[in-house]
TrEMBL record:
PANTHER family: GLYCOSYLTRANSFERASE. Residues 2-137 form the Glycosyltransferase subfamily 4-like N-terminal domain. GO terms for molecular function: glycosyltransferase activity. Coiled coil: none annotated. It comes from Modestobacter muralis. SUPFAM superfamilies: UDP-Glycosyltransferase/glycogen phosphorylase (SSF53756). The keyword Glycosyltransferase applies. It holds the Pfam family Glyco_transf_4. Keywords: Glycosyltransferase, Transferase. This is Glycosyltransferase family 4 protein.
Length: 331
């Protein structure tokens, strides 16, 4: 999200400096006119101190009007730098369920990535007059210009899961739901896109369910758009999700969407009008939606059209415009 925002801001004519450890998107940032500066990673107290000192030297040279911190460690580093240089500090809370996210209140204004997350922050004591919501969006991302990953064509017709493979994403629930309907629809496939510590347990689950011919693990991707456009159904079973970028991308790609009603997901899906919402930890509820979509071509197409309708609100350009209003409010 930080990469998308920086590219869009530079495209709009702003001077943008992206200060972080080296990453996969550095060349993309530079292609959009963003200055990329390497900052030591804050893996320990020494690294945090070196990173803070490097950030201070950078800010003294470039005199930014706004410092925007997306990580808790960077918020801690940026706070004294902003005070010493007179910059406004904006922080974005991407994971409010993390206990350390309370550190993000160091910002002059704190941005939640959905209204649901803003309400969660207010319940934790964040100030209402300094906490705003900017709904995430990743459609028409600058990342779409990257060379395509060599994942290959998806087995189809298909359900697509796109996320990190760790417990909070509950991909195991998607596999369980798919296992309930595949006897009725043996031609369908489930493509699991992503990487993470749950990979081996999920592969074991697939073997135990004897779904090796129907469930495919593709690995991770930096270019999800073609995969989403090739999918029929996008599924997300997250147990907690402030506002997943993948669901905004799935809307723009025209997938029929089924997702758990957690965090900012209902807002992304227009509270059930752009995609079907199910309770978390309820694979049978998700299976029932799969059954309806797989068994009724007209229903599938209707939900694909519903996802596309209004999806322009999920664009990176809209997110950048919203953040510009946030910046101006503190300048």
């Amino acid at each position: 999200m930080a990469v998308d925002l920086a590219c869009a801001q530079a495209d709009a004519g702003h001077e943008v400096i992206f200060a972080s450890t080296r990453g996969s998107y550095d060349d993309l940032l530079r292609a959009h006119g963003v200055t990329v500066v390497d900052i030591p990673e804050a893996t320990d107290a020494g690294g945090a101190a070196r990173g803070g000192w490097a950030l201070l030297r950078l800010a003294r040279r470039r005199r930014p009007q706004v410092i925007h911190a997306h990580m808790m460690s960077s918020a801690v580093q940026a706070y004294p730098v902003a005070k010493l240089t007179g910059a406004a500090l904006v922080t974005t809370v991407h994971n409010s369920f993390d206990a350390h996210s309370s550190l993000m209140r160091l910002g002059d204004v704190v941005v939640a990535v959905s209204e649901a997350e803003r309400q969660a922050l207010l319940l934790r004591g964040f100030r209402p007059d300094r906490t705003v919501a900017v709904l995430n969006g990743a459609a028409r991302s600058p990342r779409e210009s990257l060379p395509l990953d060599d994942i290959g064509p998806l087995a189809s017709p298909c359900v697509l899961s796109l996320s990190g493979l760790h417990p909070r994403k509950a991909v195991n629930d998607i596999i369980t739901a798919f296992s309930e309907v595949v006897p009725e629809f043996p031609e369908w496939h489930l493509n699991v896109v992503g990487w993470g510590p749950d990979l081996e347990p999920l592969q074991s689950q697939v073997r135990q369910l004897e779904l090796q011919e129907s469930v495919h693990f593709t690995g991770s991707t930096l270019t999800p758009k073609p995969l989403l456009e090739a999918a029929d159904i996008f599924a997300s079973a997250s147990l907690a999700d402030p506002c997943p970028l993948t669901t905004t991308e799935a809307r723009a790609a025209g997938c029929a969407i089924v997702a758990t009603a957690v965090g900012g997901v209902p807002e992304v899906l227009d509270h059930g009008r752009a995609g079907q919402l199910v309770p978390p930890s309820d694979p049978s509820a998700m299976a029932q939606v799969f059954r309806e979509l797989m068994g009724d071509a007209k229903a599938l197409e209707a939900w694909r059209a519903a996802a596309l309708e209004g999806s322009e609100h999920m664009t990176v350009s809209r997110v950048a415009a919203d953040y510009e209003r946030v910046y101006r409010s503190v300048l």
